[in-house]
């Protein structure tokens, strides 16, 4: 059974593990070194955790944390890849590989959306590579494309239903279970008055990037 709760103050070290898991590995046989977490633009996601604007929820199975979603705001410091402005918190989420594709991520997001709404936020940002299967999840939750680019270049797309080719490798027959049912998080994302923004993500400026904004 999966349960959800806030991250305890004594569990901050878990954030480093889940930040690394949030990096989409293009080649799992040749994973990115954990040393990339020392880069300022990645370290900023978890460094000096515990500020007033920092919020983290975790998913737990049998007393073991198997997933986490967190957000923070940036002002006058190194910002994350999905930074929009200093009034919009940026989200990060990841799960242990064996728990992906079960709808747990959408549940975590839905619960964080509720928390942000309670805190008075109307927007949040989130970064994702086009080749990451999670890209499809965000699309199903009502995001539309805002920008698409390579490396550090980006540009705007006006059409909500753009015709960008599928580069995720997740075809209709391989959708996660959240694509076959109206999950709690999906319903919340579509009915609540919370506007969400997905901004670009880049590791070593090599990958194709995408940005979304909600309808």
UniProtKB/TrEMBL annotation:
Domain N-acetyltransferase: 2-160
Alphabetic keyword roster: Acyltransferase, Transferase
Molecular-function GO term, any one: acyltransferase activity, transferring groups other than amino-acyl groups
Alphabetized PROSITE patterns for the sequence: GNAT
Pfam families, per database record: Acetyltransf_1 (PF00583)
InterPro entries named among the record's database cross-references: Acyl_CoA_acyltransferase, GNAT_dom, YpeA/RimI_acetyltransf
Region (Disordered): 157-179
PANTHER family: ACETYLTRANSFERASE (PTHR43420), N-ACETYLTRANSFERASE DOMAIN-CONTAINING PROTEIN (PTHR43420:SF12)
Protein name according to UniProt: GNAT family N-acetyltransferase
Keyword Zinc set for record: no
């Amino acid at each position: 059974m999966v349960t959800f709760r806030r991250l305890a103050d004594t569990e901050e070290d878990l954030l480093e593990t889940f930040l690394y898991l949030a990096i989409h590995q293009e080649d799992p046989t040749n994973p990115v070194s954990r040393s990339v977490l020392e880069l300022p633009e990645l370290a900023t996601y978890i460094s000096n955790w515990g500020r007033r604007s920092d919020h983290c929820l975790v998913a737990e199975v049998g007393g073991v944390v198997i997933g986490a979603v967190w957000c923070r705001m940036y002002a006058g410091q190194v910002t994350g890849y999905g930074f929009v402005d200093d009034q919009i918190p940026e989200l990060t989420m990841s799960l242990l590989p064996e728990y992906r594709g079960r709808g747990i991520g959408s549940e975590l997001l839905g619960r964080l959306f509720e928390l942000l709404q309670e805190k008075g936020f109307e927007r949040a940002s989130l970064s994702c590579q086009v080749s990451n299967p999670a890209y499809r999840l965000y699309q199903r939750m009502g995001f539309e494309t805002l920008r698409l680019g390579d490396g550090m270049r980006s540009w705007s797309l006006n059409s909500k239903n753009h015709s960008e080719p599928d580069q995720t490798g997740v075809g209709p027959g391989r959708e996660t279970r959240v694509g076959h049912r109206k999950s709690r998080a999906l319903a919340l994302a579509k009915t609540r008055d919370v506007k969400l923004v997905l901004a670009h993500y880049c590791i070593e400026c090599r990958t194709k990037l995408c940005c979304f904004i909600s309808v």
